[in-house]
Amino acid sequence: MADNQPKKTFKTLRSLSMQDKVCVVTGAARGLGYEFCDAFLKSGCTSLAVLDLVYDEASQAAEELAQQNSTDEGEKIDAIGIACDVSSEESVQAAFATIKQRFGRLDAVVASAGIVENFPALEYPADRMRKLMDVNVHGAFFTAREAAKIMIPQGSGSIVLISSMSANIVNIPQQQAPYNFSKAAVKHMASSLAIEWAKTGVRVNALSPGYMLTKLTRTVLANQPQLKKTWENLTPFGRMGDPEDLAGAIVYLCSDASKFMTGSELRVDGGYCAI
Ligand SMILES: NC(=O)c1ccc[n+]([C@@H]2O[C@H](COP(=O)([O-])OP(=O)(O)OC[C@H]3O[C@@H](n4cnc5c(N)ncnc54)[C@H](O)[C@@H]3O)[C@@H](O)[C@H]2O)c1
User: Fold this and answer.
1) Quick check: 50 and 31 in contact, CB under 8 A?
2) Residue 103 CB coordination number (10 Å)
3) Rounded-to-integer distance, Cα 110 and Cα 247, Å
4) What is the residue extent of each domain of the chain?
5) With 90 as the cut, is the pLDDT of residue 74 above it?
6) What is the model's pLDDT at position 71?
7) 3-class DSSP state for residue 191?
8) How confident is the model at residue 1 (pLDDT cuts 50, 70, 90)?
9) Which DSSP helix (H) or strand (E) runs through 22?
10) Which residues pair with 22 in a beta bridge?
11) Annotation says 183 is catalytic
12) Which candidate in 183, 208, 252, 258 is catalytic?
């Protein structure tokens, strides 16, 4: 084929496009949330909201993502940062009101904001456990519910709740029972909401990563460098995941390529749960 001929675009690949889709990611100033935003922009999305606790961090991430993904053709990327604490229903409601006002619609929402802390169950401070549940479980629920309030009247939309392989297995050797059962709750939340909203055109799925190298895991590893080797040895691939390893999975779940998929869990864990 001559160089100046347009290359054929395959139909299946087109179904993975995020072009013309308004995308929202919570906990997106860094870590996996940031990578999900990047994956959407690299798949054609030009309307994006980056939600995180601190306005300046969310805005800076949005600006950086837009800059990194702008093309020579000058296509404008409308990426905004919004301060949002997912554990507060009012804060989530205010964020989605801003999104509706700015973009008028909503196509893909990823609930990625999450925290982890390790204590033996016998010593886990009750206030820390409540905080973890507020962010990981209630935060995912408030996010999905506000998203659905916009998507249901539209008759379409894809919601992805970030669970974890910890919803399926008990991590060793670190002790993190509340994190594990918070992620099991998130996984079943996705199935439960998916069934409740199945006739509305709104899909809900869970994405469950294995050990990925982000600030969250770096914090756990900071005082115990030998733990990384242990995690690598326990993972059949023999390594931790790079956040970029989730790009294909998130785009698949949020695009029309997965239009018959709802109430499912997609595990991307280097084989961890298979053994
Ligand atoms: N990193 C991993 O190995 C791994 C594995 C499985 C699942 N997960 C899940 O993936 C998600 C993202 O993890 P990560 O590794 O990117 O973590 P991270 O700590 O690198 O980033 C989390 C982001 O969430 C934000 N956040 C925290 N509390 C918030 C709140 N109340 N409201 C809004 N934003 C808040 C933080 O400011 C941060 O930007 C979490 O739900 C985590 O449980 C991570």
Assistant:
1) no
2) 18
3) 13
4) 17-264
5) no
6) 80
7) helix
8) very low
9) strand 22-26
10) 47
11) yes
12) 183
DSSP state of 274: G
What is the CA(258)–ligand 1 centre distance, in A?
24
Residue listed under structure tokens 């002790």: 175
The yes or no reply on domain 17-264 and CATH 3.40.50.720 is yes
Give CA–CA dist 202/179, Å, rounded. Answer: 27
Amino acid at 118: N
pLDDT band at 216 (very low <50, low <70, confident <90, very high): confident
Cα–Cα dist 247/123, whole Å: 37
* Mutation to probe ligand 1, out of 207, 214, 220, 234 (largest number of atoms < 8 A from CB): 214
The residue among 7, 10, 23, 254 whose CA lies nearest residue 150 is 23
Name residue, tokens 């439960």: 192
DSSP tag of 172? S
5: its two tokens? 């001929």
Any idea which residue has 């029309």 for tokens? 256
Task: Kindly state the tokens that stand for 229.
Answer: 């080797």
Say how far apart CA 170 and CA 172 lie, in whole Å. Answer: 6
Residue appearing with tokens 């990823």: 110
